[in-house]
Amino acid sequence: MTTLDDLPLRDELVGQQPYGAPQLHVPVELNVNENTHGLPPAAVEDIARSLADVVRGLNRYPDREFTELREALAAYLGHGLTADRMWAANGSNEVLQQVLQAFGGPGRTLLSFTPTYSMYPLLAAGTQTGWIPVPRADDFTVDPDAAVRAVREHDPDLIFLCRPNNPTGTGMPLEVVEAVVDACRGVVVVDEAYQEFSDPGTASALELLDGRPRLAVSRTMSKAFAFAGVRLGYLAADPAFVDALRLVRLPYHLSALTQAAALAALRHSDEMLANVDRIRGQRDRIAARLGELGFDPHPSQSNFVCFGGVRDTTAVFDRLLGQGIIIRDNGIPHTMRVTAGTETETTAFLRAMAELAPEQALGRHRVD
Ligand SMILES: *Cc1c(COP(=O)(O)O)cnc(C)c1O
C-alpha cells in the first residue's frame, strides 16, 4: 500500500497532521462551535428559492467580483463600509489563507498569541510562512506592553489577533489591537469569528479601520449566523488591501450557489441571529455550573466555554462520547472546550459532567 512516506511531499509538510476535529455524528455535538439551533423556516424557504433560480444559469461562471454579495456584507457590517472594502471566500479560513498568500510566504513570518486558533500555524505552513507563537498570560489575556515588546522583538510580517480568542473565549480590548497595529510594520488581521457573541456594546475592531490600511477584520457566517455548511467568510479592510487579495484568489472562487445562499441569508440576518442571546445564556449557565462542580471555567466572550481543572481530559472525552456527547480536547493540559448548544443539549452535557465531577474535577485554579 502506498503511504505518504512514498510520495515526494514538500519538506515542511512531512509529519504534519491535517486539521482534525473529529466529525462524529452523535446526539449532542458541541465540539466545533457551530450554532446548534436550526435555520429559521422563512430563511430556509428564501434560500431554497434563490438557489433554484441560480441553477438555471449554472452553465455560466459566477460574478467573479461577487459585487452584490459585497454590497450586502458591507450593509450588514455597517460602520460606513462599502463594497470596495469588502472581500469574501469559502470560509474565513480561505480568507486568512489568501492574506498569507499575499503578504506572507518564504522568508516572512506570522505572529500570534497562543493558545489560539489551531488553523493559524497550519495556514502558515501551507504558505511557507514562518510561525511565531507568543504565549498569552496565565489567564489567556494579552497584555498590551508585553504584546508590543513581542512585536518589536520578532518584527513579524503578519499578526493574527483572534478576538474573542478560540479556544479560550478571551476578549481583547481595542487598545491592545491599536497598540499592536502601531508597533507592527506588517499586516494585522483581527479574526472576529465570534464577535456577535461578545457582551452587548463590545466595540468591533471595524471601528479602527479608517486610516489604518494595514489592518483588516475578518468575520464568518459559520458561527453566530448558523451557516457553517455554506462556507462563507469575509473581511473588511482598505480597498488596496482587497486588491492584494484579488491577486491570489482563484478565478471565480465563490460559486454562484454560495453567493446566492449567502445573499438570501443576509436578507434574513435578524432571524438568523435570533438565537445569539439564548446561546449566550447557555454559555453563562455552563460556566456557572462547571465552577460549582469544581472545574475552572474561563470567562468567555464567545459561544463556547474553555474550562480547566480536569484531571484526565481523554477520560472525560471518552465518557461523554459514550453518552452521545462530543466536546473538544484541544491539547491544553487539564483543559477542554465545550460549545454552548440549545438548552436541552446543554442540560445533557451538564448532567454528564455532574456525574464525572467527583472523580475528574481538580478544583478551581489547580492543575496537579
Ligand atoms: C470557526 C473559526 C473561524 C471560521 O472558519 P470558517 O472557515 O469561516 O468556517 C475562523 N476563525 C476562528 C478563530 C474560528 O474559530
CATH H-level homologous superfamily name of the largest domain: Type I PLP-dependent aspartate aminotransferase-like (Major domain)
Q: Profile the largest sheet.
A: 7 strands, mixed
Number of helices: 12
Please provide the ordered H/E string of secondary-structure elements: EHHEHEHEHEHEEEHHHHEEHEEH
Evaluate the radius of gyration. 21 Å
What structural class do helix, strand and pairing data support?
Answer: alpha/beta
Q: Please give the domain count.
A: 2
Determine the fraction of residues in helical runs and give it as a percent range.
Answer: 25-40%
Q: Biggest sheet, strands in spatial order? A: 2-8-7-6-5-3-4
Q: How big a fraction of the residues is strand?
A: 5-15%
Q: How many DSSP-defined strands?
A: 12
Small-molecule components bound: pyridoxal-5'-phosphate
Descriptive keywords:
3-stranded antiparallel sheet, binds pyridoxal-5'-phosphate, 12 helices, Aspartate Aminotransferase, domain 2, Aspartate Aminotransferase, domain 1, 7-stranded mixed sheet, 2 domains, 368 residues, alpha/beta
Provide a descriptive summary of the structure in words.
The chain has two domains: 22-37 and 275-360, Aspartate Aminotransferase, domain 1 (Alpha-Beta Complex); 41-268, Type I PLP-dependent aspartate aminotransferase-like (Major domain) (Aspartate Aminotransferase, domain 2), CATH 3.40.640. The chain is 38% helix and 14% strand. It has helices spanning 41-55, 67-77, 92-103, 119-126, 144-154, 174-183, 239-248, 256-267, 269-272, 276-292, 313-322, 343-360; strands at residues 28-29, 86-89, 109-114, 130-135, 158-162, 187-191, 215-220, 233-236, 296-297, 304-308, 325-326, 336-339. Strand 5, helix 6 (174-183) and strand 6 (187-191) form a beta-alpha-beta unit. Helix 1 packs antiparallel against helix 8 (256-267), helix 3 (92-103) packs across helix 4 and helix 5 packs parallel to helix 6 (174-183). The protein is globular. Bound molecules: pyridoxal-5'-phosphate. The site of pyridoxal-5'-phosphate has 14 residues, from helix 3.
